[in-house]
TrEMBL record:
Name of this protein: Monocyte chemotactic protein 1B-like
Organism: Clarias magur (Asian catfish)
Keyword Signal belongs to the record: yes
UniProt lineage: Eukaryota, Metazoa, Chordata, Craniata, Vertebrata
Domain Chemokine interleukin-8-like: 33-63
Pfam families cross-referenced by the UniProt entry: IL8 (PF00048)
One Gene Ontology MF term: chemokine activity
InterPro entries named among the record's database cross-references: Chemokine_IL8-like_dom (IPR001811), Interleukin_8-like_sf (IPR036048)
Amino acid sequence: MSAYRMIILSAVVVLLSAVTLTEGMRYKASPNVCCFSFQSRPLKSTLVASYSPTSSQCSKQAIL
């Protein structure tokens, strides 16, 4: 292989790696669970088995 082809191949590999890494980081940074509809009235405490807060990255805070 000529030096020119090796440079082009290296540039393509670096570019594809950069795109793959940035896409992976974008999906990793997003929260796993967000609420988009809410219960407006309180639940009976006897119906609640466990709870946890949503991620701070969600647009609205909620309890799951």
